[in-house]
Automatic annotation (TrEMBL):
The organism of origin for this protein: Periconia digitata
UniProt signal peptide: 1-19
Protein name: Uncharacterized protein
Keywords: Signal
Keyword Hydrolase: no
Pfam families: Beta-AFase-like_GH127_cat, Glyco_hydro127M
InterPro entries linked to this entry: 6-hairpin_glycosidase_sf (IPR008928), Beta-AFase-like_GH127_cat (IPR012878), Beta-AFase-like_GH127_middle (IPR049046)
GO-annotated biological processes: carbohydrate metabolic process
Residue ranges annotated for the Non-reducing end beta-L-arabinofuranosidase-like GH127 middle domain, each copy included: 442-534
Domain Non-reducing end beta-L-arabinofuranosidase-like GH127 catalytic residues, every copy: 41-430
Length: 623
């Protein structure tokens, strides 16, 4: 869906890139009228967002690609080229080794797309070419044609026979490799990636066509990522119905049936196992028009966002969904797994594209990206390492990982957890959901400093802001033409103001929870300012109205507790909260009878913090 025509892949001012053919989507998508811009057309500008991107790019550009190829080559009986093996979840004896690499491939592809970076392109191209060699050696390795993985194909036989008992999740790992290849094909135009991907898909068809429907459903009891999604994608890019049939084999009835009936049976399920299936359901709807798929995806989103998410937008405790609305009862040190939110954001933008009048999708996107994922990267680390969970216990601290990761931030070569993969990808696509377009409009969904090059209309839009510290965003248009700018007015604001060239925009409604529409004949240098007044808000836990997080506009605030250990949820006097300075988001308050400083949770690193409070009183009306 990202690219619909032949595009010159050259980012502005980038020299190393040549025009390449990007494959269009061949199957029209049911219900979709609004599209993201290709990453080649959007660049971040200086900001916290760009700092995150830079740190992750430092890492993925410095990584030794031969080390990432080690397990693939070993498994496919090729020389490992003297490379060192990795540790963590990519160690040569880790059951689902090579699950992370697809995300690294996508990160290099994203880096090349948005920045025209030759080094990223070289790494992506080399990685794909080496995977092709692995796949080509299958006869010698004793694998079926098309198989590609860092563990032996015999794991799939065991999976099918239900004798796999080492914790492996083979399709989950293979799915991630396939997505990386799809991105290399459809974002970068790499035809080797297409060939390797289609051979893998044929291999999946070969294995699954031999299973009865009930054998297949039993097998789906083991985490399989978004196999339905990637195969439906392949159908959309090839217009070969066969792939849709293979995709639908991965429709997991035990998960889909209750969702189709609007029943929330998420409690106790491994959360990140489910979300990719829902993303697949949304794509299967777009591929077939069958509304049952749409019901499944929408109901899953509604349940998860409204009944299973913490104030920061993350969900899950110890990787699992808990009973609906159980929030205050689960403030632990292993809440909000990173992967789940990465996947929820994918689902969110996919569903929004089917319902672009609805601002609640991007209200959630902003909430989760700003308050969960942005701060899940360690800003003190030039390689931008990632935390697996985001603890929400009183006095929690980021960088607390699972015991198997040493309880800390990820590392260059010894972690490779699922969340490191999704973290690497997240921080290289921070520009991909700011702007969207349809045949008459530009949508501004996120307030992020950036430059959009809207090639099709010969227009550039430059967004400047220090949001969410400052409440005002400037959108400067260069170029001309008749179109509508549609700006998301978040539900948390009131009295939003829109000006054009310094004058209040006439007859433009800017009600919270709607898109403000500015239709005009644009001329160069037209400047739109969007002011979204912010104030303190209480974000109560669904299961206890007195247990609440504090927000200022979109930003969740947390208390700074240094090294102090908190043994219970601190009692906060809401009436005591005051803003210390108008220039940044520093507040102070009284909690447990002592003064505490509050700041943006996305900046809470290196000390114990507190997010949820036992609240009393009410917020000052002036704050
Ligand atoms: C633009 O898109 C809308 C909504 O999908 C559609 O109804 C309309 O016909 C389209 N107009 C043109 C000129 O393509
Ligand atoms: C997380 O909390 C559990 C108890 O809920 C505790 O046993 C464990 O040590 C904590 N882990 C860390 C890293 O603080
Ligand atoms: C936001 O920035 C504008 C323009 O620089 C400035 O006039 C305004 O005072 C700032 N507002 C806040 C709340 O900091
Ligand atoms: C737009 O502004 C730039 C600098 O701010 C100026 O150089 C240019 O002439 C302006 N263009 C128009 C059409 O006013």
């Amino acid at each position: 869906m990202r690219a619909r025509s032949i595009l010159a892949l050259c980012a502005l001012g980038a020299s190393p890139c040549a025009a390449q053919t990007i494959p269009p989507i061949l199957v029209p998508e049911v219900g979709v009228s609004v599209h993201p811009f290709p990453m080649t057309q959007v660049k971040l500008s200086d900001s916290r967002w760009m700092d995150n991107q830079d740190r992750t790019l430092n890492y993925v550009k410095s990584i030794n690609v031969d080390r990432l190829l080690y397990n693939f080559r070993a498994s496919h009986k090729l020389s490992t080229n003297g490379a060192q093996a990795n540790g963590g979840w990519d160690a040569p004896d880790f059951p689902f080794r090579t699950h992370a690499q697809g995300h690294y491939l996508t990160a290099w592809v994203n880096c090349y797309a948005t920045l025209g970076d030759a080094d990223c392109k070289q790494k992506a191209t080399y990685f794909v070419a080496e995977l092709a060699k692995c796949q080509a050696n299958n006869a010698a390795a004793g694998f079926n044609t098309g198989y590609l993985s860092g563990f032996p194909e015999s794991e799939f036989e065991k999976l099918e026979k239900r004798t796999l008992n080492n914790g492996n999740v083979p399709y989950y790992a293979v799915h991630k490799t396939m997505v990386g290849l799809l991105d290399a094909w459809h974002i970068m135009g790499d035809e080797t990636a297409r060939d390797v991907l289609l051979k893998m898909a044929a291999w999946v068809d070969g294995r699954t066509s031999k299973l009865s429907a009930s054998q297949m459903q039993t097998m789906l009891g083991t985490e399989f990522g978004g196999m339905n999604d990637i195969l439906a994608y392949i159908y959309q890019y090839t217009n070969d119905q066969k792939w849709l049939k293979v995709a639908q084999r991965f429709d997991h009835a035990a998960v889909f049936d209750p969702l189709a009936n609007k029943e929330d049976r998420l409690n106790g399920n491994h959360a990140n196992t489910q979300v990719p299936k829902w993303i697949g359901a949304a794509r299967e709807y777009k591929s077939t028009g069958q509304t049952r798929y749409l019901d499944i995806a929408r109901n899953a989103w509604d349940f998860t966002v409204n009944a299973h998410s913490y104030a920061i937008g993350g969900n899950s405790q110890a990787e699992h969904f808990r009973p609906p609305n159980a929030i205050a009862g689960y403030l632990r040190n292993d809440t909000a797994e990173h992967c789940n939110t990465y996947n929820m954001l994918k689902l969110t933008r996919d569903l929004w594209a089917l319902d672009p009048e609805k601002t609640s999708y991007f209200d959630f996107y902003e909430r989760a990206l700003l308050n969960h994922l942005l701060g899940a990267q360690n800003p003190a680390d030039q390689h931008g390492h990632i935390t697996y969970f985001t603890p929400l216990n009183p006095g929690g601290k980021r960088g607390i990982g699972p015991a198997w990761g040493g309880g800390t931030w990820s590392t260059d070569y010894n972690s490779f957890w699922c969340c490191q993969g999704t973290g690497v990808e997240t921080n290289t696509k921070l520009m991909d959901s700011i702007y969207f377009y349809d045949n008459s409009s530009l949508y501004v969904n996120l307030f992020t400093p950036s430059v959009l090059n809207w090639e099709e209309r010969g227009v550039q839009v430059t967004q400047t802001t220090t949001y969410p510290i400052n409440d005002t965003n400037t959108l400067k248009v260069t170029g001309s033409g008749d179109w509508t700018m549609r700006i998301r007015i978040p539900s948390w604001t009131a009295n939003a103001e829109i000006k054009v060239n310094g004058q209040p925009a006439e007859n433009v409604k800017a009600d919270p929870g709607t898109y403000a529409s500015l239709t005009r004949s644009w001329t160069s240098n037209d400047t739109v300012t969007v002011k979204l007044p912010m104030k303190l808000r209480k974000v109560a836990a669904n299961d206890d109205q007195n247990t609440a997080a504090l927000a200022f506009g979109p930003t969740i605030l947390s208390g700074k507790y240094g090294n102090t250990v908190l043994n219970s949820v601190p009692k906060l006097d809401l009436g005591s909260v005051t803003r210390a300075s108008g220039d940044d988001l520093v507040f102070s308050a009284t909690a447990d009878g002592k003064k505490v400083e509050l700041g943006p949770f996305y900046d809470a690193h290196g000390f114990n913090y507190n997010v949820y409070w036992a609240t009393s009183g009410s917020l000052p009306s002036t704050a």
